[in-house]
Amino acid sequence: MKTSGALLAIAASAAALPGSHKPKPQPDADGKFTLTAPGIRAQFIPYAATLTNLFVKDKNGVETDIVLGYDNTSYYPVDPGHPVYNAIPGRYVNRIGNGTYTLDGVTYHTEKNDGPNTLHSGTNNWSYRVWNVTNVTNSSITFSIHDPSNSSLGMMGDVDASVTYSVSKNKWSIVMDAISPQQRTPVMLTQHTYFQLDAFKNPTNRTVWNHTLYAPTAKRALVADQNALPTGEIANITKNSIDDFWSAPHQLGFASGEVGFENHCGSGCHGYNGALAFNNKRNKKDVALTLSSAFSGIKAELTTDQDAVVLYTCNWNDGKSEFKSTQGVAGQDKFIPRDGCIAIEAQDYVDGINQ
Ligand SMILES: *[C@@H]1O[C@H](CO)[C@@H](O)[C@H](O)[C@H]1NC(C)=O
Ligand SMILES: *[C@@H]1O[C@H](CO)[C@@H](O)[C@H](O)[C@H]1NC(C)=O
Ligand SMILES: *[C@@H]1O[C@H](CO)[C@@H](O)[C@H](O)[C@H]1NC(C)=O
Ligand SMILES: *[C@@H]1O[C@H](CO)[C@@H](O)[C@H](O)[C@H]1NC(C)=O
Ligand SMILES: *[C@@H]1O[C@H](CO)[C@@H](O)[C@H](O)[C@H]1NC(C)=O
Ligand SMILES: *[C@@H]1O[C@H](CO)[C@@H](O)[C@H](O)[C@H]1NC(C)=O
Ligand SMILES: *[C@@H]1O[C@H](CO)[C@@H](O)[C@H](O)[C@H]1NC(C)=O
Ligand SMILES: *[C@@H]1O[C@H](CO)[C@@H](O)[C@H](O)[C@H]1NC(C)=O
Ligand SMILES: *[C@@H]1O[C@H](CO)[C@@H](O)[C@H](O)[C@H]1NC(C)=O
Ligand SMILES: *[C@@H]1O[C@H](CO)[C@@H](O)[C@H](O)[C@H]1NC(C)=O
């Protein structure tokens, strides 16, 4: 079963690389595997099947690292904040309401690790495991995971899953497969990358509020409670209301002056941490969502077979974490401000297992 697929095409100029036939690619001294294709260079580590760096060219042809992360690859597993940086959470991403679901007449209880709910399957989630590298070339890598039954509390039956990342001219593609050979079990996956299309190089503003988002078929949103748990209601998005990225391309901060923006993603959280539903009759080969920045001139186009997307505008950034040495401007400090990034997570409907 193909559970999730996404293709991110990033506009950039590029020159062809010479081809060659040499030994199997090895990780560098930091443990990173590097994939290259014209206009794009992506680096990955087996911890959580994580993307550490994604380099594309900006409007001036300068290579730009447009995702968050750490220089120090040893820090990903020990970071107490652990924002699921560019990783694959699983086996059931996002929230399970009240840590409870019923499948085939049996009610299961999962770990309540996010207030009254389960988040990313609890404290033995896939984004904290070192995945196996089962195939690697200079333009693709496959990470695999064997997830034993009940290793995340209340999720029964083994699951074997893999993610294959590959690059081709200006494109990063993501294909996830998962099988549950023993019994039916909840499986929902996503790729959880945080983007900053200016790579913190805008000398006057490091937030994403001036990035522009457009998702022309995302005319509905999953209504959520103060714990960011969907209530089951899927509401139409009114033109020019806070979630409106369908009627026209809007800057992410376009609604920041509106009443409701302040707690829009749960109590104390401003901006976005919710799910938009695409028109499920759309052509899935069409671009579903575009994120762009006039400052860098970089535009990312998302194509996905999934029916929804979670947008998370990084309310949690506390101004104390540094961005990478590949980012920013020489001579300035390196701190990521609140609202300094946006996670774009193509996935199925959050807590769909209960709705
Ligand atoms: C992969 O890339 C490395 C580094 O550029 C090169 O040495 C090697 O020959 C390439 N291998 C293949 C199969 O193209
Ligand atoms: C990288 O992170 C690890 C784990 O926190 C730490 O032990 C190590 O000192 C760090 N290395 C550098 C160069 O900061
Ligand atoms: C919430 O889960 C608990 C068990 O963790 C269960 O006893 C309770 O009935 C559930 N409440 C609802 C509203 O489903
Ligand atoms: C995922 O698992 C780790 C390791 O057990 C845990 O520290 C973390 O809190 C879990 N993530 C979430 C979102 O609960
Ligand atoms: C490894 O990946 C390459 C490139 O995607 C593919 O052609 C090949 O079939 C894969 N090999 C295996 C064993 O999956
Ligand atoms: C990696 O492969 C080994 C050998 O097959 C297996 O024991 C281990 O569980 C795998 N690791 C993960 C994270 O699935
Ligand atoms: C699942 O694991 C928990 C401990 O994490 C245990 O209490 C429970 O009995 C296990 N369930 C089954 C069906 O094995
Ligand atoms: C960045 O731009 C946003 C949107 O205009 C604004 O709200 C914020 O105050 C700016 N931040 C800085 C540091 O100028
Ligand atoms: C939502 O919009 C659709 C299509 O425009 C319409 O058919 C439906 O009645 C609307 N639903 C609500 C609750 O307004
Ligand atoms: C940045 O966004 C703010 C609203 O958040 C808007 O007022 C301002 O004009 C935008 N700046 C640019 C350069 O687009």
From TrEMBL:
Q: State the similarity comment.
A: Belongs to the aldose epimerase family.
Task: Cite a single GO MF annotation.
Answer: aldose 1-epimerase activity
Region forming the signal peptide = 1-16
Q: Name one Pfam family in it.
A: Aldose_epim
* Name recorded for this polypeptide: Aldose 1-epimerase
What's a single GO BP term from this record?
galactose catabolic process via UDP-galactose, Leloir pathway
Does Signal show up as a keyword for this record? yes
